Amino acid sequence: MEFRSDVTVELVRSSAADADVLFAARVSTQGEQTLDAAAAGTEATSRDRGLINYLMRDRHGSPFEHNSLTFYVQAPIFVFREFMRHRMASYNEESGRYRELRPVFYVPARERNLNQVGKPGAYEFHPGTDEQFAVVDETTRAASIQAFEAYQRMLSAGVAREVARIVLPLNIYSSMYVTMNARALMNFLSLRTKVEGTHFPSFPQREIEMCAEKMETAWRELMPLTHAAFNANGRVAP
To answer: Which residue windows are coiled coil (predicted)?
Structure first.
């Protein structure tokens, strides 16, 4: 039995660069051009920065779609249920019907806030007490152990995996590939990260925010001009 308090995100494949945005946008005024020509001269010019910022500011979003990023994510299942509310990506998750799930469970770290204050849409989260953390930690571990033992008993009795899995809790880890373009990723980040200075504040659950932060770090390295314009314009997806 393994207990974790983290998530992992790995960028496994990408075709994404600021030049992709410039290439797509300039067809409007220059007609057909090669991507090599759009990327000629690896040093970004002020004109390039200005165009990307203009597209972001005035919400001309389609040029930001001509790229692709594929992430491999390991996180508890309750995080994946939140991911899949975003119908702007392609998902492939490991299946509890076809493989025996591993006994890896999420338990919140001590620094994870436990107290929710406020009304829907304007929550604040505050640290829990030592007593609250002890209850969360002990109860989560005990429930996970009991559930996985029940799962194993059914499998040992010859029950199908798709039936036996029904007793497993939402904090069991799963893994998936998620593929999206930069425009979709910006929409995801605008909703699943809490950053000061955004035009539309968001209040994400911390565990999916942990995934979003790792995805943003990988994307920022690939498309620094686009990322900078996203931040400069209030983190609103174009």
So the answer is: none
Backbone angles phi, psi at 197, to 5 degrees: 90, 5
For the stretch 67-99, pLDDT in tens is 999 999 999 999 999 999 998 899 999 999 999
Any binding-site annotation on 215?
no
Quote the CA–CA distance of 38 and 213 in Å, as a whole number: 30
Q: Per-residue pLDDT averaged across 21-31, rounded?
A: 78
97 is in an annotated binding site: yes
Residue linked to tokens 């605008």: 190
Radius of gyration of the chain (CA): 21
8-15/68-76 β-pairing? antiparallel
Residues with catalytic function: 192
- Residue 176 bridge partners (DSSP): 73, 93
| Residue 2: φ, ψ to 5° | -125, 135
Q: At residue 137, what are phi and psi to the nearest 5 degrees?
A: -65, -50
Q: pTM to 2 decimals? A: 0.91
How far is the C-alpha of 205 from the C-alpha of 143, rounded, in Å? Answer: 22
Instruction: Output the six-digit token pair for 86.
Output: 């975003």
Q: What span, in angstroms and rounded, lies between the C-alpha atoms of 144 and 171?
A: 8
* Residue 123: predicted pLDDT: 77
Is 237 among the annotated ligand-binding positions?
Answer: no
pLDDT at site 119: 80
pLDDT at 124: 83
Please tell me whether 99 is known to bind a ligand.
no
**What's the pLDDT score for residue 39?**
53
Say which CATH topology domain 2-105+174-232 has: Gyrase A; domain 2 (3.30.1360)
Question: Does 85 belong to an annotated binding site?
Answer: yes
